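Dear colleagues,

I hope this message finds you well. In preparation for our joint manuscript, I am sending the Fe2OG dioxygenase domain-containing protein (Ostreococcus mediterraneus) sequence together with its predicted structure, so that both groups work from identical material. I would be grateful if you could confirm receipt.
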Amino acid sequence: SSSSSSSSSRPPRRRMEEEAYDGATTSAFERSGGLLYVRNFFPEATFARVREECEALRERVTVENRACARDRLGVMIPEDNFVHRAFVASEVADKMRALLLGEDCARELIPGDVPVEYRIYPIGGSMDWHKDVALYTKPQYEIVFTVANTSDSTTEWEDERTGMRYGGWTEPNSVIVVKADGVAHRVTPITVGERSIVKFVLTQTLEKTDDFFDNLLTYAK
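The corresponding structure tokens are as follows:
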């Protein structure tokens, strides 16, 4: 991942707010400035099952090899696991299509064939300023679902339209969406508690870049 430099001044705070769709021709994602936050992502029963299955995945996590990640643990979720199936379900892509591409958009949006990942930020875990690398020839949407969050960590990002920096705490059963090669963002170091997430990808093409294959080595011993 490429990194951007961070200034010494503290970024202004604002609450993470879901971008309301107002019927304009642009999508909620386009109006958000490059980072979209959506609450209540799954129905409660689905969320409860995802949370339960993620708890069972904890014993499989290992240290992650990504350059911008600090002390983060993770595992690529098997395709037969409920968590994987929940995030690649057609209902998820259909829900996100309107938010990401626009209500009337006929363009295809499908799950990427990059593995779905379960990640844990323990105390000390963080992610430096970076932009997500394009894994497909049309940059993919990288989606981070918060499973649990008892931490003091925030996700901070830079609005590509204004250069202003913002940040917020992510609640369980919410998602953050950024586009590869899009906004610079980071996760501040945890000093209290823990944050666990599921990361998945939606894309408009499965035509891959060379970086796709490098990504598969994230948890290689």
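For the figure legend, we might mention the following. Helices lie at 28-31, 44-57, 82-87, 90-101, 210-215. DSSP finds five helices and 13 strands in the chain.

With kind regards,
E.M.
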